[in-house]
Amino acid sequence: RRARARVECPKCEAEDVNGLRSCTSSPPTNTHTRRAPPGGGGNFQSLLRRSERTGGIHHSLIIHMTGQGEKVLFREEGVELSLDDVYDAREIVSKHAKVTPIFTNSTISGLCGRELFFKMEVFQKTGSFKIRGALNAIFSMTDEQAKNGVVTHSSGNHAQATALAAKLRGIPAYIVVPENAPKVKVAAIKGYGGNITFCGLTMQDREDACNKIQREKGSHFVAPFNAKETICGQATIGLELMEQTELGLDAIVVPISGGGMISGIALAAKSLNPKIKIIAAEPRGVNDAADAHKSKAAGALQVDAVKPKTLADGLQAKMGNLTWAVVRDLVDDVVVVEEAEIVSAMQLVYERMKVVVEPSGAVGVAAALSEEMAAKFPPQSFPRVGVVLCGGNADFSVVDFWANWTKRWQSF
Prior knowledge:
globular; 16 strands; alpha/beta; 19% strand
């Protein structure tokens, strides 16, 4: 272990990381613990420029300088997230999940005026990135924790992932699903062996149903996003993306909902390249309910934000305390997109990339194409950008897609 330098307050940051400084404010606003670079001494630039103390909880960011770069260790309410945890997660995830490819497309890149690198999680098992977090969570459990199976709640993708991961471990999965979940996702959950319980449309409805199953079955809860194991599983996307592009990206655009995926990607990517920008892509919804954007703007989690009414049904959750802390400190900005932009992005991906993407998966593409993205992150300054296509479980039945094809040939 290398020596650590501690700074008690952002106002008192010492230029020499080996120097121990006391906070000049009263009371101290935060504690920063930062490992010194190899050999000690020298100037050090912390990634964390703003931090808070809320409700008596300290938020800490540790930067570990190694020969290969910096490792970020994030601590929130006693939970630590580090690049080492992500590598451990990859040992688990790689045994069952795919290393998804990177696609490029000259047409879409030309429209953006920069080179885009699409991380194709649409080709992942279960059709979305969610299997990574579910695998890490379920295969990290002890036999005692796993003996009564697992329970979770989800609008679809996390549910499918949990059902498959549980099946691979040989334990039952009890899945709470809102009654308006896409039919294609419900069918897939059943196909993976999940035991479905339908519930109402609110988060409280989901949690009440989960709690009931936990009491009755003694099952272990698999968090959709707000847990270390889930975040570190999703972080393997960031590891792969950085490796596949040889650390050559200027920014990564990631759809955001509960924040598990973007938290993990931010942790992994900024550990390997501290200068990279992590940009959240969020649907505004027809009811102007982009809560991640509002939370970042306010500097505080908007716990009472309303659920967005959007085609992107997989992006309707709210961040938890852990994911919010990472998003607050490691995500650089949030780009908000409209419903029309999501549909246009879907169409572009279908027609130009020949790939099926669900609305939630197209939100990152919509953000990359947006005027807001071009203004905040100009192509000349950020010429190489990664975009996560996070899911391809589109429900074509809601638009009578196949029925309309049938009607067409019947009209001949």
